[in-house]
Amino acid sequence: MTKLSEGAIEALSNGTGGNDAVLQLVNIRKIDGGSGLPRFRVMMSDGVHTLSSFMLSTQLNFMAEENRLAPNCVCILKKHVTNILKDKRRVVIILEIEIIKSAEDVAGRIGEPTPYTEGQGKGLQSAPNPENRPPLQQQNRNEGECRVLF
User: Fold this and answer.
1) What SS3 state is found at 29?
2) What domains lie within the chain, and their CATH numbers?
């Protein structure tokens, strides 16, 4: 059985995740933006948590359109950039991804992941008071810039 990078979803959600995380694709959905190329929203799992805040870069649309990226396939997130939207949500843009096990070769969902909610991995610690928080900054060390328009 393929080993996923447990804890990677929490790290990516917080903007501290690095590259080469092994994740399972749970769901992929085409989003028609009206103008320009379609976008694909992706839900990924690390075996512990799921996160639906992934977007496929348009250069990788062919992977979704040719059904290479399909539910249950296992991938290595090779390169990504994390963007912060106006409402402070984070979106992980997938710039490079490698499929290491196709959906046909995986016997379903790995682990029993639950949806990740910010602060969930911190145990019983209470969240800091919003007035005392430093402003959010992009913490991704990847090169390049990508903007998401909704």
Assistant:
1) strand
2) 8-117 (2.40.50.140)
